[in-house]
Amino acid sequence: MRLFSKRLAKSVSPEQTVEVTESRGIRQLQLGTQAIQSAMRISRPWDLELAYTRAMMAFLLFRAGPDEVLMIGLGGGSLAKFMRKHRPQTRITAVEISPQVVSAARSHFFLPEDDEHLQVLVEDGAVYVPAHPASADVILLDGFDAGNQVEALASLGFYQACRRALKPGGVLVVNLWGRDPEFVTWFSHLVAAFDGQVAWLPIMGKSNVIAFALVDEDGPERLARAEIDKLAKKWGLDFAMFRRELRWAGEVAPLLDKNR
């Protein structure tokens, strides 16, 4: 794809390379590899272009009206912009370790400046989360470097800290990479930290697996009561499909035990 793309910006530091390219009306953020970290259609900058970001919004099946959302990993800011468009009263805190990524999100992906409902912090999510217990209704965790899962954001201890950072009824949403050689380990950590209360969505044709870890134990009942049509109308996403495709960690427990 890069052969047919126009490079808009490139920033190189000892820690990482941040590159912004554009092709056929779609702007992309990459971190030194071909892997696409974020994408935005220029004609619809507030929409979710990538399937995995749309799937992450399936947390609304469990927590329909979050007041406080914590994002670990900003990317191009797609999820933050989408939530601001559809539920502007939600307070969003985005923690991103790379100032280069924050700069690219603001200069090339139309991420708004901070205000009373959006705060972007250049900090390490592995440090920030344990220091903020009971602070979020939803945590959106999308922690990758140059195509790999960040180990510090996938450890058992970090997932336990995420659980403590959630309020009652809270949901941790994790973008996992199914082809990661440590995928089973990371998923097992998540299941252990949340006592098995984990659902997941595979992304058709992609290697992403989106996991939803629940603080409370009434996840299946809460899901059964979800107002699917109302959510779809408000957010413009296929929540009926999300509900059909959701699986629970108990369905893969033998695989997890086998690979520990």
Structural features, described:
This protein has 260 residues and is α/β, with parallel strands linked by helices. The protein has one domain (44-259): 3-Layer(aba) Sandwich (Rossmann fold), CATH 3.40.50.150. The chain has ten helices and twelve strands. It has an eight-stranded mixed sheet with strand order 7-6-5-8-9-11-10-12. The longest helix is centred in the last third of the chain and has 11 residues, at 183-193. The model has no long low-confidence stretch (mean pLDDT 90).
Index terms:
single chain, about 260 residues, alpha/beta, Rossmann fold, eight-stranded mixed β-sheet, four-stranded antiparallel β-sheet, about 30% strand, globular
Helix content: 25-40%
What's the Cα radius of gyration? 17 Å
Fill in the CATH topology: Rossmann fold
Give the overall silhouette.
globular
Name of the CATH homologous superfamily: Vaccinia Virus protein VP39
| Strand adjacency order, main sheet | 7-6-5-8-9-11-10-12
Sheet of most strands: 8 strands, mixed
SS-derived structural category: alpha/beta
CATH class: Alpha Beta
Mean pLDDT metric: 90
Low-confidence stretches: none
What percent of residues are in strands?
A: 25-35%
Total beta strands: 12
Return the string of H and E elements.
Answer: EEEEHEHEHEHEHEHEEHHHEH
